[in-house]
Amino acid sequence: MDAKEIIARRVAQEVQPGMLVNLGIGLPSMVANFVPDDLHVFFQAENGVIGLGSRPPEGMEDRDLTDAGGGFVTAVPGAASIDSAMSFGLIRGGHLDMTVLGGLQVDEKGHLANWMVPGKMVPGMGGAMDLVAGAKRVVVAMVHTAKGNSKIVPECTLPLTAARRVSLIVTEMAVIEPTQAGLVLRERGPGVSVEDVQAATAARLIVQGDVPEMTLPA
Amino acid sequence: MKRAIRPEEAAEMIPEGAFLLIGGFMGVGTPHRLIDAIVARGVGGLTLVNNDTCRPGQGVGKLIDAGLVDKAIVSHIGLNPVTQKKMIAGEMQVELVPQGTLVERIRAGGVGLGGVLTPTGVGTLVEEGKQVLDIDGRKFLLEKPIRGDFALLDARQADYVGNLEYSLTAHNFNPIMALAADTVIAEPHHIMPVGVISPDAVKTPGVLVDYLLERAH
Questions:
Q1: Fewer CB near the terminus (10 Å): N or C of chain A?
Q2: What InterPro entries would the database entry show (chain B) (predicted)?
Q3: For the residues A189-211, what does the mean pLDDT come to?
Q4: Would you call A162 an interface residue with chain B, using a CB distance cutoff of 8 Å?
């Protein structure tokens, strides 16, 4: 199992029955592949659909039905199309149960930076700032390190996405919960020790008792 | 009855330096024939409000390619390297606005509000230069309204009085922008007799729409 699949499978376990969930582009969007249909979850794409479905069959794409990355999608039974004010009203108004986003950095305060690298990459925040400010639960899904450097740092050096503390960080090496006291290591990745996690993490981790290994159902 | 106009007639109404609200999210729900006509006419100095700047050669990205846009007010430019290049070279100004804030600023402009108070952006670069208000112990940014000279909309269908119905994820900013400009031009995919669109299905009442683009031939 590669790192991204470990992360997507583990994040999928955070999804509870009946939730409204927004998945970011890239790695976070893989989470949908591991959420069982019988949970009756609705996925929101912030460009305007509640009830986002998988890719349409070849040749059946509708140019007016895409996800937030511009890719062609379908809509599930019970779906609703919405305008941007409704879409972000849901997000900001506390109606979105969970958002899963990628991250460039998360720090000991649980602050997320994921929208720009000054002088290098300025893609813009898109919907990320609203999602992090407004969703009931914010899950950061990202690989643990980038080019050998820890993405979990004492303090973000990149511009923040929000001043709010994120709810959970899931990487292929660890599940970490930001708390008032700091970053609590909740789970280890498959075959990874607590020492391995700390060695790969620039931020200080709080370890309480035995830290279990992630369970990833087949 | 609205008048159906040709794309070139619409483009001729838009003067140099105009402030344009254009519907669309990565080119979905964007009035493509209107954009082509504006590019063909080549009048520049425009301010563009859109969710993004699409991709080079697509949607509003064509306006950027043609060098017609002086300033873009958008939430995302990550998929358009031309925008990034022009921004870094100082040929074009880009104001990045969180998507939910952008739509609410436009809504405020359209519905007569003096601004909106949003928690989005508090404690980030977006806060810079803005008033922060404490409302019952919670911090909010005061974000000012946006209004344009023209709103250029895409719709699934219109009827003869200009009522508009939209399609799936092609709603996005269109119904909101319809209230926020002095002149509203809609590019419907179909134009139907009055009565075909049920009153319950009308998302933009025709009273807001000044011109319909005639059907493509």
A1: C
A2: 3-oxoacid_CoA-transf_A, CoA_trans_fam_I, NagB/RpiA_transferase-like
A3: 97
A4: yes
Is the pLDDT reported for residue B7 higher than 70? yes
Is A46 one of the catalytic residues?
yes
- Taking the Cβ of residue A160 and every Cβ of chain B, the question of whether any pair is shorter than 8 Å is answered with yes
Enumerate chain B positions whose Cβ falls within 8 A of a Cβ in A. Answer: 25-29, 51-52, 74-79, 84, 87, 96, 98-101, 103-104, 107, 118-126, 156, 166-176, 203
Q: Which amino acid belongs to residue B167?
A: S
Q: Is A70 on the interface with B (CB under 8 A)?
A: yes
Domain with residue A94: its CATH number is 3.40.1080.10
Q: pLDDT at position A1, please? A: 87
- B177 HSE (CA, 13 A, CB side): 32
Distance CA A187, CA A170 (A): 9
Whether A212 is covered by a domain: the verdict is no
User: Phi and psi (nearest 5°) for B41?
Assistant: -75, -35
Q: Is residue A145 part of a domain?
A: yes
Residue B31's alpha-carbon distances to A128, B27, B59, in angstroms, are 26, 8, 8
Retrieve residue B193's tokens.
């007799």
Question: By CB neighbour count within 10 A (0-12 exposed, 13-18 middle, 19+ buried), where does A1 fall?
Answer: exposed
Looking at the complex, report in whole angstroms how far the Cα of residue B170 sits from the nearest Cα belonging to chain A. Answer: 5
Domain annotation covers residue A213: no
With CB atoms and an 8 Å threshold, state whether A127 touches B100.
yes
Nearest CA in chain B to A45: B169
Chain B residue closest to A127 (CA)?
B99
What are B28-53's pLDDT values in tens digits? 999 999 999 999 999 999 999 999 99
What per-residue string of b and e applies to A14-48 under the rule 16 or more CB within 10 Å gives b? bbeeebbbbbbbebbbbbbebbeeeeebbbbbbbb
Residue A178: give the domain boundaries.
3-206
Residue B131's pLDDT is what?
98
Tokens, residue B154: 């895409």
Which two structure tokens, joined as six digits, stand for B5? 């106009």
**B17-96+147-217: CATH superfamily:** Glutaconate Coenzyme A-transferase (3.40.1080.10)
Per CB-CB distance under 8 Å, the chain A contacts of B164 are none
Tell me if the pTM is above 0.95. Answer: yes
Q: Where in chain B is the domain with CATH 3.40.1080.10?
A: 17-96+147-217
* Burial grade of B209 (CB within 10 A; 0-12, 13-18, 19 or more): buried
- What residues have CB less than 8 Å from A119, skipping those under 6 apart? none
Counting the structural domains of chain A, the total is: 1
